[in-house]
Amino acid sequence: MTAVLFDFSGTLFRIESAESWLRSVLAERGTALPEPELAATARALEAAGALPGGAYPERLPAALAGVWEVRDESSALHRAAYTGLSRLVPLPDPALHDALYDRHMTPAAWAPYPDAVEVLGALRERGVKVGVVSNIGWDLRPVFRAHGLDPLVDAYVLSYEHGVRKPDARLFATACAALGVEPGRTLMVGDDRRADGGAAALGCRVHFVDHLPVAERPDGLRPVLDLVDHGGVAGRP
């Protein structure tokens, strides 16, 4: 393997909980909710799928189905999809829906998995190039910079910047071209079998990790080093 491509959310980083997300925005805006109401509202937002990087909607309204399907193809579509889901949940101030969306783009809303820096650093020491390939509607580079991972990444390929989303092989091809590597010597690491598994169509090898809270996955990325060293593959779409 001469390169490894990583997904972002659920692979290298994890978004904060829905309750932390809501609590932070309410505190920033000086809005108070009784604790039982705050907890119930956070659960409702999570069920609605309003937190990007969090759970998918339990029920997707027909009126949002179209924008949801293409949400990662532009910044405007991404915001429209997630604020549309958020607005399904009553909040004390309508401006909170956009404030919640803005919060999820901040470095404070994300935590790297415990072994992320270690694994990316070890790949750099081995001379293996690293790319980040993400279905996303905003620039995640500040998150990597704030958490110290940016110096370990050689290229970012983000769906909204190209108008193409995984599993479309063109996004993976763009990443391989940016790194100057052959797909057949590239490993894709992600948590979504459908989206990340699309790299296999290009000839990349694929490895999957579990999308778990940070505390529950302390070393889920370390097998990547063995796969790179031995040219193996632990997962297929």
Q: What keyword list fits this structure?
A:
single chain, 237 residues, alpha/beta, Rossmann fold, 2 domains, five-stranded parallel β-sheet, two-stranded antiparallel ribbon, 10 helices, 12% strand, disordered C terminus
Structure description:
There is one protein chain. This protein has 237 residues and is α/β, with parallel strands linked by helices. It has 2 domains: 3-14 and 109-230, Rossmann fold; 16-108, no CATH class. It has helices at residues 18-28, 35-48, 62-69, 75-86, 96-104, 116-125, 141-146, 159-162, 169-179, 223-230, and strands spanning 3-6, 13-15, 110-112, 129-134, 155-158, 186-190, 205-208. It has a 5-stranded parallel β-sheet, with helices on both faces. Helix 1 packs across helix 2 (35-48) and helix 1 (18-28) crosses helix 5. The radius of gyration is 18 Å and the shape is globular. Residues 233-237 have low confidence and may be disordered. One of its GO terms (molecular function) is hydrolase activity. Keywords: Hydrolase. Its EC number is 3.1.3.-. It is an enzyme of class 3 (hydrolase).
What can be said about this structure in brief?
This protein has 237 residues and is α/β, with parallel strands linked by helices.
- CATH fold node name of the largest domain: Rossmann fold
Percent helix among the residues? 25-40%
User: What's the CATH class label of the largest domain?
Assistant: Alpha Beta
Shape: globular
Organism: Streptomyces flavalbus
Keywords: Hydrolase
EC number: 3.1.3.-
GO molecular function, one term: hydrolase activity
